[in-house]
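Changelog note: in this version the structure field was regenerated for every chain. One regenerated record is shown below for reference.
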Amino acid sequence: MLKKGIKFIGAFSWVGATATAIVVSGLITITSAKAQSKQPQPIFENVRIGSNFAPDPLVIRGISGGSVPARSVAGRGETPTGACMGYVDEQPDHTMELTNFFNYLSLQVQSPEDTTLVVRGPGGSWCNDDAQGKNPGIAGQWQPGTYRVWIGSYEKDQYHPYVIRMSEVQLLNPGPSRR
């Protein structure tokens, strides 16, 4: 089984030649990373971000899927941002701590396979499927606090690589709004 890592993000960045990208600011702290050649990209990262974070978009990686119905994790089958579809792990793939209110923040999942999204945090649960093609996403205003994020697969115990792009830049078609 893959272990979950931690990545905290802010405004100042340092990247080792082939090491894990690490970003630091006054608001943000990081975990240590070893600068070794052929170091794989970290997966299952956790982030802590504030307004005007850099880089934007922030990209984190993971593997979708699990054996738990997404509706069980969300606590319901339908949310204002979409249906709670697919299967996820019992534990979240990522934890996202927002240090302040975001008037606009988008989370867009990109995967070669059809994936789903569940987010639980201050104010409730939000799900999405197919915001942009077969990729889920949620965008809108976000309260400060800790959010747990699950990326699901349609088939039970099927696992697919993905990236999540987080951005404060509002696109023309950002996907379903989270309110």
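Spot check on this record: The helical segments are 70-74. Residues 1-37 have pLDDT under 50 and may be disordered.
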